[in-house]
Write a structure and sequence with these properties.
Elements (H helix, E strand, L loop, with lengths): L1 H19 L20 H19 L8 H14 L57 H7 L16 H5 L5 H4 L15 E5 L2 H11 L4 E9 L7 E8 L3 E6 L11 H4 L5 E4 L3 H11 L6 E3 H7 L7 H9 L19 H31 L2 E2 L5 E2 L1 H13 L11 H11 L5 H21 L3 H4 L2 H10 L4 H8 L4 H5 L1 H20 L1
Helix pairs in contact: 2-3, 11-12, 14-15, 15-17, 15-20
């Protein structure tokens, strides 16, 4: 019942979003754990917009009826006042078509794209591991082998840097929390450099090798791609923010592996999990010696751990999380997009200093001995160890089956009649197959909300189907006959059962 109520509420918000931004590329029902974390910011900001607009309209209620242009200006003023940019996916070009090593969405297997094992302490030999049940392995070993916790199937390779990560020795300065983060500097007072060629990437790597600590943030585009791909890689030294155009330099970004696997440099990230996997998927880039600010906060039992909340609470800095859903294929970046991208790396660096200080204070209460005999900061070592366990995870491609469709029904709290369930599962599987073939996201092909509407209604005519799916993507429009044939087939199955 709780899942059904949550789904109904999210559906209402989705309909409001679609009225406000008809081409927003957002499918709220398909955002994991929407009720917590940074993703919830999209709902909070929609509420801000609605209440602000309502208030503005009420204030003008006693005036002479406004013209349509006055209404348009009013809406524009409110949007600017609450910093709510319109998100539109209007670009038709697919940059991934130009990538030299594009990942094939149709092939469910994935082999690591590591070209050169930089900073190696042990030679890596590719091991062709079959996809076999992994239920007999310990949890920590499951991470290393890339076992999918949902299907309990082993991925086809072991992390190439598992030896380096398992045998990582933290230097004294890192154990003490002395990462060499420069004094806090505002975004406006910090230089930003754009990296859009292989030569600039090589120069950047050479420059950053002398730093103890850098912050890293990865932004991907996923709406017009099945697997998604990295669009921007942000790096900050505190002195300079570097904006790497990961689309323009896609075929050269693998060289960043030299920097990111350097054990002498601490890489600071916020909620690194998915970002690490994106780097593996697109470039064969891995990570050694990571400090994840969000993981540290969770180990400190902090209640608010979303980036927007932490940034506001600790630095009194607002970040517009709406830009997380922007079209990151856009070039050049808008001013708002660039500011958002810089904040994700620049501000994370300074947050790490605050959190490390908190870890040090905790360790003063409970001094622990470090394994090699040194007396160190136990909380910091514990956090670093947990963060580097994240680095062991390996990328595997998503697998959608009728079984995952069944799980989705349960998560959404849906109660279906047999024919409705059959239709939902058929459409759920159909959109995945088409999305893989065309390298589109399932949200673009057929979002979950209209899919649910069709499953509940079991439309009798093609016109009714079109209305339920509106607005249709170009892909769904071109395949409307096929979609209707699926509906008719499911309804026919019901008639056969009745007549049996």
């Amino acid at each position: 019942m709780c899942n059904m109520i949550k789904t109904t509420c999210i559906q209402s918000y989705q309909e409001l979003f679609d009225l406000y931004e008809p081409n927003n590329g957002l499918s709220l029902l398909e955002i994991p754990a929407l009720e917590s974390g940074d993703e919830f910011e999209v709902i909070r900001q929609l509420e801000d917009y609605m209440f602000a607009l309502t208030d503005a309209c009420l204030n003008k209620a006693d005036s002479t009826p406004a013209s349509s242009s006055d209404v348009d200006n009013l809406i524009k003023d409110v949007q600017e006042a609450i910093q709510t940019p319109l998100i539109n996916y209007t670009i038709t070009e697919k940059p991934q078509d130009r990538f030299g090593d594009r990942v094939d969405a149709l092939d469910l297997n994935f082999a690591p794209k590591l070209r050169e094992k930089h900073n190696a302490r042990k030679e890596w030999v590719y091991e062709d591991i079959s996809r076999i049940p992994g239920i007999f392995f310990q949890d920590d070993y499951q991470r290393e082998l890339g076992i999918d916790p949902r299907t309990q199937l082993i991925s086809i390779y072991r992390n190439p840097y598992s030896y380096e990560i398992h045998n990582l020795e933290f230097p004294d300065w890192e154990v003490r929390g002395d990462l060499g983060v420069p004094p806090s500097c505002s975004l406006d007072d910090t230089v930003v450099e754009f990296i859009d060629t292989e030569e600039k990437i090589m120069d950047l790597i050479a420059r950053l090798k002398s730093f103890r600590c850098i912050s890293v943030s990865v932004i991907q585009h996923s709406y017009r791609s099945y697997l998604g791909y990295c669009s921007m890689i942000m790096i900050s030294s505190g002195e300079i923010d570097y904006a790497i155009d990961a689309i323009a330099t896609h075929n050269s970004c693998w060289k960043l592996n030299d920097l990111f696997t350097n054990p002498s440099i601490v890489k600071v990230m916020f909620n690194a999990g998915d970002q690490l996997l994106w780097l593996q998927r697109d470039f064969g880039v891995f990570m050694v010696n990571l400090f994840d600010v969000q993981m540290a906060l969770k180990l400190l039992d902090e209640k608010q751990t979303s980036f927007s909340d932490v940034l506001m609470n600790r630095m009194n800095e607002y970040i517009n999380m709406r830009f997380r859903r922007a079209d990151w294929r856009t070039r050049p970046l808008t001013a708002g997009m660039l500011r958002f991208a810089r904040q994700t790396a620049h501000s994370t660096l300074y947050l790490s200093s605050m959190v490390i200080e908190q870890l040090q204070n905790e360790s003063e209460k409970h001094i622990n001995r470090v394994g090699d005999g040194r007396v160190g900061d136990g909380q910091i070592v514990e956090t670093l160890a947990a963060c580097n366990e994240l680095c062991l995870e390996t990328y595997h491609k998503p697998v959608q089956t009728y079984e995952t469709g069944e799980s989705t029904i349960a998560e959404l709290g849906q109660i279906f009649q047999p024919v409705q369930k059959m239709l939902f599962l058929s459409l759920y599987y159909w959109r995945d197959v088409v999305a893989r073939e065309l390298d589109e996201s399932v949200q673009y092909v057929l979002p979950l909300l209209p899919l649910l509407k069709v499953a509940h209604a079991v439309p009798k005519t093609k016109e009714e189907l079109r209305r339920l799916l509106s607005p249709l993507s170009a892909t769904a429009e071109q395949r409307l006959d096929r979609l209707f044939s699926i509906v008719e087939s499911c309804r026919s199955e019901k008639l056969v059962e009745k007549n049996a």
